[in-house]
Amino acid sequence: MTNFLATLLENIKTLFSSPLTLLTLLACGILLIAFIKFKSIKFNAQLMARIGLALALAIILDMIKLYTFPNGGGSVSLGSMIPIFIISYAYGPSVGIFTGFLFGLLKLMINPYILSPIQVLFDYPLPFMAVGIAAFFKDKKLIGATVGMFLRFVCHFISGVVFFGEYAPAGMSPIIYSLVVNGPAVGVELLICLVILALMPLNQILKTLRPSSNINI
User: Fold this and answer.
1) Are 67 and 76 in contact (CB under 8 A)?
2) What's the CA angle centered on 186, arms 75 and 208, to 5 degrees?
3) Would you call 31 exposed, middle or buried from its count of C-beta atoms within 10 A (0-12, 13-18, 19+)?
4) Which residues are CB-neighbours of 42 under 8 A, at least 6 positions away?
5) Whole-structure pTM value
6) pLDDT tens, residue by residue, 25-74
7) Which of 160, 12, 150, 172 is closest to 81 using CA atoms?
8) d(Cα 70, Cα 143) in Å, to the nearest integer?
9) What does the pLDDT look like over 116-152, one tens digit per residue?
10) d(Cα 93, Cα 87) in Å, to the nearest integer?
11) What DSSP state is assigned to residue 134?
12) End-to-end distance of the chain based on CA atoms, in angstroms?
């Protein structure tokens, strides 16, 4: 625990050493909050607690690595997106996107890799905000999960082509390189999420979570 806290503090220090990145994240957060205010979402204590629980579970699951691909090819977690899917289905896309944004910030603090502000957006907040879009398919949840994870892949793919293409082996296109690096990790994680969503009593869980009238979804 001590080593983890020391590493976390060092990572936060690294993040604060890039003021332009911080300003970019702040601007993204302000726009997101303004959108949420426009949607008239009431962040009461119950909703905030559930968002916090979803984030905690997502981070814990993300730390459980089932497989790590070689050569920086990413890793596969134990369905870390499941809590974000659940809160998205329960409270709608706005809350899901907001939760994904917060998860991306936590990932950035835990394991930052900063090349530029735009790269940070495409590797951290944006891909996990995209997961919340699954809520637009709340009546076809597996399809929604597939769409959300595909959009997450698109964000990582763009980052891989634009910012990491130079690391492609000689003679390999940056597009192919990004596809090979990001495709398997996101694809396998999607399969794990689909299996878990199909096996769990999702409708009963959502029935206990869904608000009565305190939020517009």
Assistant:
1) yes
2) 100
3) exposed
4) 214, 215
5) 0.85
6) 777 777 777 666 656 677 889 999 999 999 999 999 999 999 887 655 67
7) 150
8) 30
9) 889 999 999 999 999 999 999 988 999 999 999 999 9
10) 9
11) G
12) 39
Scanning the structure block, which residue is given the tokens 């303004």? 34
Residue 125 CA to residue 196 CA, distance in Å, equals: 24
Length of the chain, please?
Answer: 217
Which residue type sits at 77? Answer: S
Give backbone dihedrals phi and psi of 68, rounded to 5 degrees, phi first.
Answer: -115, 120
Residue among 206, 207, 179 at smallest CA distance from 88: 206
What is the pLDDT at residue 26?
Answer: 78
Alpha helix (H) ranges present in the chain?
2-16, 19-38, 45-63, 82-91, 93-110, 117-123, 125-131, 141-163, 174-199, 202-209
